[in-house]
Amino acid sequence: MKQDMIVILDLGSSENTTLAREIRALGVYSEIHPHDITKEELNQLPNVKGVILNGGEHRHVDGKDIDVLPEIYEAGYPVIAIDHALACCEVKLSAYPTEEQLKDFVFATCKAEANWNMKNFVADQVERIRSQVGDKKVLLALSGGVDSSVVAAMLIKAIGKQLVCVHVNHGLMRKGESESVVEVFKNQMDANLVYVDASERFLKKLENVDDPEAKRKIIGAEFIRVFEEEARKLEGIDFLAQGTIYPDIVESGTKTAKVVKSHHNVGGLPEDLEFELVEPLYYLFKDEVRACGVELGLPHDMVYRQPFPGPGLGVRCLGAITRERLEAVRESDAILREEFAKSGLDQKVWQYFTIVPDFKSVGVKNNARCFEYPVILRAVNTIDAMTASIEQIDWAILEKITDRILKEVPNVNRVCYDLTPKPCGTIEWE
Ligand SMILES: Nc1ncnc2c1ncn2[C@@H]1O[C@H](COP(=O)(O)OP(=O)(O)OP(=O)(O)O)[C@@H](O)[C@H]1O
């Protein structure tokens, strides 16, 4: 293993991730572990140089104060405590450490080296994956999104053709998206890729369904069904890889934090399909996942793309999905993305897309009355997706996009710009 590690033990602080990130910012790898980790478990973690007992406002759990096991102090590592007056170590800080205090502990006391970088992380993960998997096969659901793409690239590097990727085209992908998964993974990286075109099947299931929640449920359940069918066709698979990332774990609730939301990746597979999990991005934050993707040689567009909802364009084709309107969403979205890239807005705006509602309005085209759909543009900025503000797009760019959509997208005769911030409008319309 190439990187030194500082272990943070979670004793109810709400700043565990902030602390982990600050230590990583010093160039030293850091992981958060539960307060009741045993000495043996701690000793099994690679290259531990020091331990931080991170106390805080949630230390009182189920009527009593939680604490680390006394044996932790005998594990042979330097220990520092934050906001934990009863800790049995020399250095006890009453409040969150300053940068100087942190540096002093990490470098002077623990003698950790600043050797945390993506090159070393990838090298360590490749080694871990090889020893976990041996000569067995691993299955991965590859959406083409950032997380599963980086997992795929990592596993291809570690075990090559022992990885089987399954990409499901549910017909709700953006223009060119499934094609780019095939191009990058099958053609360029020579991966073992199973491409399933299930568009017809999804569209059939979604016919006449106009309730947004019902649409999302059908898409999710159908995805699991298709993936399960493919998994059953394959033989001798022992592992399932997932793009679980650190915020998924932290948000799912540690032993002291209240559950923010439960997160399942490719959850929902039947229990008789028993796989052991491979999760090589488990300890990475989103920006680190992107940096890891770059290190693994993935195209910039794939790694820095904007977030895309699981149900895809299905929630932007409002109401009951029709092929006609789905095409209008896909084509207008492609134009919007192209024009944003040309003007550099793609580097600035967090998320931008188009929506096509299920009603028509009157217009005039080629001197004749027409009755067609509107396209709604949305471009928002946010830090945490809890609130969002509207991007003030240059008028000339809006006009150019409008002009192109009206000329190039069939069945559309009107373009609108959504000026609603969140709250009260959510980012997506459904
Ligand atoms: N069309 C698809 N084909 C194959 N796998 C998929 C597809 N859609 C989703 N998945 C799998 O389900 C996981 C969760 O999907 P979700 O839409 O929540 O994206 P995510 O957590 O942002 O991950 P990603 O960035 O990889 O899309 C993905 O990481 C991927 O493994």
UniProtKB/TrEMBL annotation:
<comment type="function">
    <text>Catalyzes the synthesis of GMP from XMP.</text>
</comment>
<feature type="binding site">
    <location>
        <begin position="143"/>
        <end position="149"/>
    </location>
    <ligand>
        <name>ATP</name>
    </ligand>
</feature>
<dbReference type="GO" id="GO:0005524">
    <property type="term" value="F:ATP binding"/>
</dbReference>
<protein>
    <recommendedName>
        <fullName>GMP synthase (glutamine-hydrolyzing)</fullName>
        <ecNumber>6.3.5.2</ecNumber>
    </recommendedName>
</protein>
<dbReference type="Pfam" id="PF00117">
    <property type="entry name" value="GATase"/>
</dbReference>
<keyword id="KW-0658">Purine biosynthesis</keyword>
<dbReference type="InterPro" id="IPR017926">
    <property type="entry name" value="GATASE"/>
</dbReference>
<comment type="pathway">
    <text>Purine metabolism; GMP biosynthesis; GMP from XMP (L-Gln route): step 1/1.</text>
</comment>
<keyword id="KW-0315">Glutamine amidotransferase</keyword>
<dbReference type="Pfam" id="PF00958">
    <property type="entry name" value="GMP_synt_C"/>
</dbReference>
<dbReference type="InterPro" id="IPR029062">
    <property type="entry name" value="Class_I_gatase-like"/>
</dbReference>
<keyword id="KW-0436">Ligase</keyword>
<keyword id="KW-0547">Nucleotide-binding</keyword>
<feature type="domain" description="GMPS ATP-PPase">
    <location>
        <begin position="116"/>
        <end position="305"/>
    </location>
</feature>
<dbReference type="GO" id="GO:0005829">
    <property type="term" value="C:cytosol"/>
</dbReference>
<keyword id="KW-0067">ATP-binding</keyword>
<dbReference type="GO" id="GO:0003921">
    <property type="term" value="F:GMP synthase activity"/>
</dbReference>
<keyword id="KW-0332">GMP biosynthesis</keyword>
<dbReference type="InterPro" id="IPR001674">
    <property type="entry name" value="GMP_synth_C"/>
</dbReference>
<dbReference type="InterPro" id="IPR025777">
    <property type="entry name" value="GMPS_ATP_PPase_dom"/>
</dbReference>
<dbReference type="InterPro" id="IPR022310">
    <property type="entry name" value="NAD/GMP_synthase"/>
</dbReference>
<dbReference type="InterPro" id="IPR014729">
    <property type="entry name" value="Rossmann-like_a/b/a_fold"/>
</dbReference>
<dbReference type="Pfam" id="PF02540">
    <property type="entry name" value="NAD_synthase"/>
</dbReference>
